[in-house]
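Database export, one record per block. Field names are fixed; values are copied verbatim from the stored entry.
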Amino acid sequence: MKNIIKYISEKIAEKIISYHSVTGGDISSAFLLKSEKRNYFLKVNSKPFAYRMFQAEQVGLEAIEKTNTIAVPHIYLVDSFQDKSFLLMDFVESKRPDSSDFSLFGAQLAKMHQHSQSEFGFYKDNFIGSLPQSNTFHDNWAEFYWFERILPQLQLAKEKKLLSASEIPNENRAISLFQNSFGDVKPSLLHGDLWGGNYLIASNGTPFLIDPATCFGHSMVDIAMSKLFGGFSQSFYDAYHAIIPKPDNYSQQIELYQLYYLLVHLNLFGSGYYSSVSHILKRYF
């Protein structure tokens, strides 16, 4: 690490006074760096895809930052050195959120979701966890969700022998189901991987988004992911839905969008997620 720290110090033209490892890097190693000017958060990864992953993270955070709706850490450097890739960003001193923090978070996320464009997708492919995520543009949301989200994960699960061929839904039936369930969707800028580990509440109460898997899609995707592992505070959802109302088939949309993330977890972590995936596949397909 000393060589990387020295390299970073030269690149940012600041002396690094100290550094130590911290939690916060699920896929990468994480470090807190202290310079004479500020504290930095550093992620380091030696995987072959790491540089592309960090570049995609930078692009996603910058897209969110441009909306001026919710805070993200500023990124100072994405680079590689001695077979290791790294990302250097602001270190956010965080606290345990209270109800009012969650209300602000929900309202700001809804305002971010109001930022739109004409097509579904994103100009750059990215990652969901360590898995590649295609963002090829589509005019139709149901087709985007099938071809760029569900189908690639189903195919990977089949290759890994985590799902059988008979469990793969029929394409036309799936797209028709998505069209009927999701209806007329307006593209919203999404975080894309909004679980409890991918936001922070700063010590002053400011919500921050981190580790995005950004694209333009249905706003309910972020809400569904936020509920997958226990959900956020009710005040978050109350504030969010005061701006973007719940759809009539709220529960069905939640399950169909959680299917993507459950498939991702099945492919990343194995058969422990099979029963949850199988339940949704049997129920809807």
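Remark 1: Residues 250-269 form the longest helix (20 residues).
Remark 2: The chain has nine helices and eleven strands.
End of record.
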